[in-house]
Amino acid sequence: EDQVTQSPEALRLQEGESSSLNCSYTVSGLRGLFWYRQDPGKGPEFLFTLYSAGEEKEKERLKATLTKKESFLHITAPKPEDSATYLCAFSSSGGGADGLTFGKGTHLIIQP
Amino acid sequence: GAGVSQSPRYKVAKRGQDVALRCDPISGHVSLFWYQQALGQGPEFLTYFQNEAQLDKSGLPSDRFFAERPEGSVSTLKIQRTQQEDSAVYLCASSPDVPAGAITSTDTQYFGPGTRLTVL
């Protein structure tokens, strides 16, 4: 069964303390792996799409990486405005639903 | 340019009432998706349109849920005889290209702000 597991569920960091969020996935045919940021009361905001193992993408303090079984979202020297829930999702070519399959998210809090 | 918009942003319904939720996708986007997000969970897929055609409705939880996109732009998600378990945020997303077929950088989905439905 296609599924996504994100860890940790919640993470509290001090400003400037770098860390990584994990997204483990099981899918019959990966079309794309997506990272979104979601602030309270808002819809998910697109961050990155990764398509193949070994691929990396960066944006400001965030870098996403992809292997055949998992993806990491690395946060370097985070600031309080990076506090949000980070969602991982994939699209599948395996004949399942056409939508994205999401994990439950990692709730990140950056303390000043 | 304008992003995906949804209305209303908040809806309170009494159990048994019918509700209609509207989504205006990004202009020119071919694909449109509806998701349901329960508190503390990730979004769950409900249904998918390619232009006006509903190609996948495998995620609709019951026959009380109905979606349409008659002219290939605006979409409406209708829930009949609402139940308390229908309380959730309903998210709409649009994508510029058809997701099936070759992988491109344009199958990314862009989400609206959501409609928070509370059924009393």
Description of the structure:
The complex is a heterodimer of chains A (112) and B (120). Chain A is an all-beta fold. Chain A has one domain (3-94, 101-111): Sandwich (Immunoglobulin-like), CATH 2.60.40. Helix content of chain A is 0%, strand content 58%. Chain A contains no helices and 11 strands. Chain A has strands at residues 3-7, 10-14, 19-26, 30-38, 45-50, 56-59, 62-66, 70-75, 84-92, 101-102, 106-111. In chain A, strands 2, 4, 5, 9, 10 and 11 form a 6-stranded mixed β-sheet that branches. In chain A, strand 4 (30-38) and strand 5 form a beta hairpin. The model of chain A has no long low-confidence stretch (mean pLDDT 94). Chain B is built from no helices and 11 strands. Helices cover 0% and strands 46% of the residues of chain B. The radius of gyration of chain B is 14 Å and the shape is globular. Chain B has a single domain (5-100), classed as Immunoglobulins (Immunoglobulin-like). In chain B, strands 2, 4, 5, 6, 9, 10 and 11 form a 7-stranded mixed β-sheet that branches. Chain B has a 4-stranded antiparallel β-sheet with strand order 1-3-8-7, with no helix packed on it. With 120 residues, chain B is an all-beta fold. Chain B has strands spanning 5-7, 10-13, 19-24, 31-37, 44-50, 53-56, 65-68, 75-79, 88-95, 110-111, 115-119. Classes of the chains: A mainly beta (112), B mainly beta (120). The interface between A and B is medium-sized, with 25 and 30 residues.
